[in-house]
Amino acid sequence: MDYPSLLLMQSSEFLSPELLAELVQGRVDVVECVTETGSTNDDLKSAVQSGRHAGRCVLRTAERQNAGRGTRGRTWANANEALLFSVSMPWTASERIGGLISLAAGEGVARAAHALRIAAALKWPNDIWAAEGKAGGILCEFVRSPDGVPHLVVGIGLNLRVKAAGRTTHGWRITSLVDAGARIDGTEDRTSLLASVVAGVVDQLRRLAREGGKVVVDDWPLCDAFGDRTVAWVEADGARVEIGRIRGIDEAGFLLVEGRSGRTTLGGGAALCNPLEFGYDNAAH
Predict the structure, then answer these.
(1) Any idea what the CATH number is for the domain that residue 266 is in?
(2) Is the pTM of this model over 0.70?
C-alpha cells in the first residue's frame, strides 16, 4: 500500500512527518505538517475551495496556530504543548446526521485514547474531557469544492501539557492528556499518539457516513464523560441557567437533560456549565 503524499513538510522536532504518513496509510491521502499557521481548518477549507484538495482525505497539522478558533468563533488558546490538526474529506452523507458529526469525531478521539490507556472521554457536544477538565476541543465545518461536492473539515486541538491551571468560559478546569495518563516523551510518542487519534476520528466518521446515526448513539455510553452527572446548562440565547441531570443523547445527537421543569433536549448553541459556578456541589449528588 502506498503511503500518503507529503505535500508540505517543515523541519521540526515536534513531529515526524515521515512516521506520521506511514502510520495513517490507508486512511489519509495527503499529510501536511507545518510549524506555524493561522488555522489548520482555514487552511484546508481554502485548499478544498480552490480544488487543490478536493476529493481527498487530507491531514494538516501545525505545531502552533496564531488564529485558531473554537465553537461559535471563540479564540483557541494554545497550551504549552498540544496536538493541533485538521482533517478534510468529501462528505455526501445525509444532512439528517449533521448533529452527530462532532460527536462521532469526539468518540473517535475517546476510542483511540482508551486503546492507549489514556482516561479521556467526550463532554457533549465537542470537548475532550480528561482528569476532570477540558483537555481539547473539536470544530466541524463544511465547505464545497469547485464542482459543488460538500467536504467536511474537522479541526481538533488536544492539550498534551499545560503549565498553569486555568478555566474555560463555562468554569471547567483546563487539563491535558498527560494529566490523564498519556506518556509523551518525545517526537515519536507525539507522532504515534496523533496517528492513533487521526485513525480513530477518520474511522468513526466513515462509520457514521456509511451506517448512519445509530453508530454514534450505540457508542455514546462508552465515550460519554458525564453519564448521569449533575450539570448546569445555558440555552443558546443565554437567557437562563438550569441545573439537572444528564440522561444520554437522542437519535439526532441532542443531549437529554432532566431538571426542575422536567426532561428536555439541548441542541446546537446550548452549553454545559460547571454547577459549582452556580453554588451547586456536584460531588455531593
Answers:
(1) 2.30.30
(2) yes
